[in-house]
UniProtKB/TrEMBL annotation:
Lineage start: Eukaryota, Fungi, Dikarya, Ascomycota, Saccharomycotina
Organism superkingdom: Eukaryota
The protein's name: Actin-related protein 5
Protein localization: Nucleus
Transcription regulation found in the keyword field: yes
Annotated keywords: Coiled coil, DNA damage, Nucleus, Transcription, Transcription regulation
Organism of origin: Candida verbasci
CDD domains per record: ASKHA_NBD_Arp5
Keyword check for Nucleus: yes
Gene Ontology CC annotation, any one: nucleus
Amino acid sequence: MAPVPKEGELPPQQIHYLRDISFNNYKPEPFYQNYQQDVPIAIDLGTLNWRIGLTNSSEPNNIFPGVISRYRDRKAMKTLTLIGNDCFADSVLKSTMKTPYDGPLITNWDYIEFMLDYSFEHLGVVSDNGKLNNPIIMTEPITCPHNQRKNMYELLFEAYQTPKVSFGIDSLFSYYYNSNGRSNGLVIGTGNQSTSIIPVIEGKGLMSQAKRIDWGGDQCQSYLSRLLSLKYPYFPNKLNSSHTTNLFKDFCYISSDYQSELSHILDMDVLEEKDIVAQAPVEIQVKEESKKTEDELAQQSLKRKEQGKRLQQQAQQKRIEKLAQKQEEFDYYTQFKQDNINTPVDEFEDKLINAGFDNLEDFNKYLTSLDRSLKRAQHNDDEDDEIDPAQSWPLVDIPDDQLTEEQIKEKRKQKLHKANVEARERNRELKKQEEEAKIQFEKEQEEWRSRDLDDWSTTKRLEVAELISAYKEKQKLLESFKDRKSAAAQQRMKYIADLANDETGSTSAQSRKRRRNANATIDNDPNDNFGANDEDWNAYREITNSSLEDELEEINKKILKVEDELIKYDPNFHIEDTFAAATKFDWKNSVLHKFIHGPRPNITIAMQAEGLSPEEIAMHPETLKKNHQLHLNVERIRVPEILFQPSMGGYDQAGISEISSDLLRRRLDGNFSPGGQSYNLSQDIFVTGGLALLPGFQKRLEVDFKSFLPTGAPLKVRIAKDPVLDAWHGMQKWANSSDSRNAYVNKKEYDEFGPEYIKEHGLGNSCIFDF
């Protein structure tokens, strides 16, 4: 039982698993047991499926995919040829499956012969004269090319020596089965490779006005595959034609008002209903980790503390050893300097260079550095000890005229030491005062809150509002620097140009004034007078963004501090009211997020908010599951819409409704009063073929036809009883009726007139040759 969602939470979406070809459900093709000679054999030669049977039966005996697989058995040294469903007996054969078609046309006639042999064998065909003693009724594409019919004639008449053959169009056979044979209507046949629109007048197709759209079921699945590849370019699973075909059949539908539905399909309430989640197979390895007890956690924490203490002791020991090493070096070099006090300077420098120093100056700097480090360490050690001024700095209060030169130098050192100690004392006092002021401020704030919480909350909210306003102003200024045409960016460039002019000898009054005030510089360089005035340093603030970024960070810290207080004490202030929550990404307002992830938040963002590491997020079972999901929303209506707007698929053709409007209003008599051709056809709009199974097809045709038919014109749209099998049913009905009596081409006529000869009938193509 599914868990009941809490208030405000969305229920879990239904998961649909991708369906592929199942090799476990294979069943061998049945063999017909009631074969009879002279009974016509009906063959619906589809590019997707073949449907074959004797016309003395009400249903086709064999229905199988139009594929062939040739497999070389190396042990038996034989090449096996497998047809139709037999190719799905083993997954090894899947990679070798081929089709004899290229689009709607046959390109490999050897494969067609293999498949016909397979079909006749399963029909139980036997012969005592080495011939196929059954007439053949076969479907062919609309406006079938001469080369296709010629090769099929040769195969049937010369290879199988069939007595007679007749060809027809599948959609007209389907209409024949669903009518009385003398009906008027507009037949829309949706096939695997194309869609045809044929007017039928008194049971006969008007082929001179027939139209074809080069879009069918195969193009639909291919188009859906390309859309999903663009939508999910890094999808871990490879989608094959079976996946996309099943997705198209199961979830796509025809919208009655495409533009209106498209404009609202990504609205949250509509998306909640329309979005489909397709789950691809994924293996998730769940690691079972034993939960640690409280004692184990406490012991682990104690170990961490002990480890921290050991690290601190090791660091202290290293500092002591390093300090002792510095003391040894200082004593050594001090004694070295004392021993060479009477040595000539050149000779002493040679000794220093041999000892690893650059010169005398480098040696003095190193010695001074060691002395400073040792004194600093000593001062840190004696920092907490009480200092007696009379003992620590005995020379500070004695006038200089009472001291020798050495004592005056020592007095200067003592004065510096005294100043450092007094500065540290002042810092301690300032910190103490700050702590007391902080405690006093907190006390006042607490009294204020207890006295009047509303006033305190209002004041803090105003403070937050002012800080947010200042933050946005600074951020706006920072963003303006990215636009080189903005006023801030132009001013910035002006400052940079002014600085460059000063360096290259500018003649401005300000530059001349700076050069005259050479004494104001630190090193008395007459060419370096920048910084003499305080305004000079503002130039750096104008040409760099670092100060703005620091100010933004400081304002953001103040905002967070005040908001924390409000969250803690104001019962009406929540996390959703904070500045961060207001500026964070809202997936519900992101069209791209809803298009790719559907009406649910991205689980990765939620895991990041929980503080999980990127590795944990990547390997989390929910993340792996989500990464193997496809969301179908816009694609559900976009793919079938190409039947009505082929330009969306890149075809320079009109759609079903536009072609039908042109036929009924212009190419036929355009008479919508009783007795007119257009009147009779609009009363029966017949849809057949595999795409007729798409939900919404009938309603869309009704809406579109009403938009162009005159007021009061009759309209009836209907779908075939069985859009997939009714073509074969129509062939079976036609073969057993008198309409087929003179519609066959026999072997004698073929030999006399050649492969260009056909006999016209109401359900086939027209002849374009004169005899």
